[in-house]
Structure formats: C-alpha cells, structure tokens
Write a structure and sequence with these properties.
- The structure is a homodimer of 248-residue chains.
- Chain A is 44% helix and 15% strand.
- Chain A is α/β, with parallel strands linked by helices and 248 residues long.
- The longest helix of chain A has 20 residues.
- At the A-B interface, α2, α4, α7 and α9 of A face α2, α4, α7 and α9 of B.
- The structure holds adenosine-5'-triphosphate (2 copies) and magnesium ion (2 copies).
- One adenosine-5'-triphosphate (ATP) sits at the interface of chains A and B.
- One adenosine-5'-triphosphate sits at the interface of chains A and B.
C-alpha cells in the first residue's frame, strides 16, 4: 500500500506545489506509481498540468459518496485535481461529520493502487491541511531560509504535534527541505544554520533546492523540470531529494 | 477620515506583508498618520516588528466589544497586531452575526484618527480577506510575474466583484503592483506583458518592485527598508509607489 506524504507549510510561496510536481515526477521515473492530490483551493497544482475547472474534483469525494477522481498525467503519474470552486465548499467540509478523517477514508479505498501519494497543501493550517496530515504517514516541509520561515516553524511543529496527539499518532516528519536558496547570499547560509540550530530534533534533508529560473520556466511551460530541462540544477536536486526520501 | 486599503492576493508569498511594511513607512514619512492592521493569522507583519504573542489582538476586537488594539511603532506609524492564536478563532468569526462587517464597524470607530489604514491580508479568500475588503475603500494587489500569478488574477477579480455586488459597492482596485521582478529574466518581462494584455481594465502601477536581497536583510533585521537601508533599490521603489498612490 502507498506511502502517503503531505507537502506542508502554512507560509505562502515556499515551493510546496513545485516540490509536489518534481518530487512526484522523480519518484515516477523510478517506476513507482505516484498519485498527486491537490488539496489547495487555488488549484495551482492542477493548473500546472493544464487541468482547469475539472468537473470531478477532490472536494466532491470528501462531501459525497464518490471516489477520489483521478486524472492520468504521465507514466506512473496521476492527479486528483482541484480548483477555486473548492473554496466555496470548504466550510461544508469543516461542518461535516468526521471532517478530519474523510480524506483518510477515501485514500484507504485506493491506497493499494499506488506506491506514493503526495498531497499538496494550501498556505494555511485549516481543514484542508488538517485532513491531509490526518491521512498521511509522513510529511515534508519545504522552507525558505528567510525571516518569515523561522517564525513559522514553531507554529507548524505545534500543529503537527496536535495532529499526532488527537488524530494520527504515527504521523512523522520525513524532513524539512530548504528551497529557493541563493548560494551567493550569506543571509541564506546564515538563516539555514540558524534554523538547523534552533530545531535540532527535526530531520533536515541534505538536499537543498536552489533559486533557479528553470523552475519558473518549467511552470510557464506547464511541465515538470524533467520534461522541460533535465539538465537543470533544480531537476538534479529534486531527483536527489527523491533518492534521499527513498533511503530514509 | 482615513483611506482604508487592503493589500490582497490569495497567492502565497507574493510580497503582501513586505508591501504593507514599506508602503506604510513611506506614507508615514510624508507626515501622514498610518495604521497597519495584521489580518493574517500567521502574524508575519506583527513578527516583523517584534510584536510576538500580543495580549490584545485584532481578532479580540472582532469577537467582542473591545476596540481595535493599537501599538505605536514609529512616528506616524501604528500596528494592530495578530498571531497564530487568531487561526483557532477564525471559525468563531465566520459563524458570528454580521461577520463580514465587523472589521468595518470597528474601523469606523477609529477612522478619524488616521490618514491611511493598510490591511495585510492572508493568502486566502476566506473570512479575514473578505472582512478586509468589505472594510476598504480600495485595494492594492501585489503580484509576481510568474505562471501561478496569471491564473490567480481572474479568481481574485471575481472575488472582488462579488464583494462589490453584495457587500461594498464603492470598493475599487487602486492597482496591481508587480513584485520580486528580476530584470535579467526575459520570463518576467514576458509575463508582465502577458498579464497587462490579458487584464486591460485593471490599473497596473508603473512602479515595479525588484527582487532584492535588501528586502530579505531588512526582515531579518526586523526593520522596514528605510530604517535598514534607505539607499536600497526596493526602498526607492516603495517610496515611488507611495507617491504614485497619493497621486491617483
Ligand atoms: N527553486 C525555485 N527557484 C525559482 N523559483 C521557484 C523555485 N521554487 C518555486 N519557485 C517559484 O516560486 C513561486 C511559488 O512557488 P510554489 O507555488 O511552488 O509555492 P507554494 O508554497 O506552493 O505557494 P502557495 O503557498 O501559494 O501554495 C512559483 O511562481 C514558483 O515557480
Ligand atoms: N522584492 C523582494 N525581493 C526579495 N525578497 C522579497 C521581496 N519581497 C518579498 N520578499 C521575500 O519573500 C518572502 C515573501 O514575502 P511576503 O512575506 O511579504 O509575502 P506575502 O504575500 O505576505 O506572503 P504570505 O502569502 O505568506 O502572507 C519573504 O521572505 C520576503 O522577505
Ligand atoms: Mg501551492
Ligand atoms: Mg504575508
């Protein structure tokens, strides 16, 4: 059955969606069958694959008896899409019975079909992130080496701790991964050291994702990095991240 | 009475908080009295001023009879703070009577004391953003020149249109401001042109905010750009943005 991993950070624009796209592709190229779930009502992940206004989307399966809708993307790569219409229905989900467990139940129906299920979380600690974490075996936290990142870590760790106490005890943190790092900035190097020292109990991946125009270009092209430019630095880094994850 | 302006964009990490900090400072240096309101339960704006775990915060004034709490920051510059505890109480706000108008009512009690009130919105189109837009005369939309930005514009314009139809007819868009622009990237120049052509009815500020390490350094130092490095390019740009806003 699949390893279910949430890509989570309530800070906006830290590379969650970018990490889901490229980590999923790297895992799929290993021959592993990967499902990506778009739990962000902004639907960026779905937009990146040109899946616009999907008739069946993840929120439908959480509010009714239908299964998780799955769209094939490439070899070994699948997507459960979302879009802005999810935002209007989020409160229905919050108010539903057993709200926090609904994604867990739906995933359990399809877990055997995949090796990995990666869940793209929105920039908040609300119901969508909670459902994702409750349904997950582990989580990966993309994090920038900036002032705002440092403050967010403690809040995120508290939220994960509550999830473990009250809803999903086995949930573990696969690791934090530094993203959008500019090697020429002392500030980034200093902040990475500062974060490592302040949160010693947390596993931090050795792989660091560099700030790179290749990422931006791949998203304009609506492709993952491998398809767009497999020689690019961030692709090699995401491939290494996948290897690191598999070896944990 | 004050001009109330929301700094809004549901896309994460586009520079909303950075824009509030530096636009507010620029306006205050003109001798205008400016209040910044932190409507983001992550409380980044408050953290940037070293206001941590404020005993009185904005959510208290929205859920009870107390006035908006105001902390003096500098000459002509004030802050109504927030922190992660707001997240736990957001559903109380959503479920409260007249929820969308509560910020409007509280602001009306203090409007005469300020020239500008800038509201920092979270990366979502939920109750906090709605309250902010309902309370505002106008809004400014920081936007990156990236693929994700393009998709988000239409959704944001629809949300603003609904707010105008059902809650706040006079609400206008002061303008979109491009942020984190890397002049060396053709991709950014192309995307700026693409966005301008696709959304012709929308005012776009001439001022563009460049990607700059000075911004990151100022936030590590917990200062606005003027205090940290008034010779820096982004400070000059935010000062020019303030002038452009005042001349609208
Ligand atoms: N390594 C990188 N180098 C350069 N640009 C990047 C990198 N990673 C992500 N980006 C860009 O930064 C922006 C934000 O990335 P992304 O959308 O993946 O973050 P996110 O955490 O999913 O945001 P949100 O919180 O809004 O969901 C995107 O425009 C993306 O193309
Ligand atoms: N012009 C710039 N140049 C370089 N870095 C910038 C610039 N503007 C903002 N940043 C950095 O980008 C990150 C995101 O900026 P900011 O927090 O202002 O965005 P936001 O839209 O408020 O994010 P959120 O959606 O999470 O509230 C911060 O670490 C900030 O220091
Ligand atoms: Mg995302
Ligand atoms: Mg912010």
């Amino acid at each position: 059955p699949a390893q279910v991993i949430s890509i989570v950070n309530h800070k906006g624009g830290v590379g969650k969606t970018t990490t889901v796209i490229n980590l999923a592709k790297a895992l799929s190229l290993y021959g592993l069958k990967v499902l990506m779930i778009d739990m962000d009502s902004q639907g960026n992940l779905s937009q990146c694959y040109n899946v616009h206004e999907p008739e069946q989307q993840i929120i439908d399966s959480l509010l009714s008896d239908v299964p998780i809708p799955v769209v094939p993307i490439a070899d070994n790569l699948y997507l459960a899409p979302s879009d802005i219409r999810m935002a209007a229905r989020e409160s229905d989900l919050t108010n539903s019975i057993g709200s926090e467990r609904r994604l867990t139940i739906k995933i359990s129906q399809i877990r055997d079909q995949y090796d990995y299920i990666l869940i793209d979380c929105p920039p908040s600690l609300g119901i969508c992130t909670t459902c994702s974490l409750v349904a997950s075996d582990g989580c990966i936290v993309p994090i920038q080496a900036e002032a705002s990142a440092y403050h967010g870590v403690a809040n995120l760790l508290n939220h994960i701790s509550d999830i473990r106490t009250y809803a999903n005890p086995p949930l573990n943190i696969k690791g934090f991964v530094f993203t959008m790092i500019d090697k020429r900035l002392n500030l980034h190097a200093d902040m990475m050291g500062h974060i490592k020292n302040s949160f010693k109990g947390v596993h931090i991946f050795d792989t660091v994702i560099s700030q790179s125009k290749a990422v931006k270009e791949s998203q304009v092209a609506k492709e993952d990095l491998f398809t767009c430019d497999p020689t690019s630095v961030p692709w090699i880094q995401y491939k290494t991240l996948a290897t690191e994850l598999l070896n944990l």
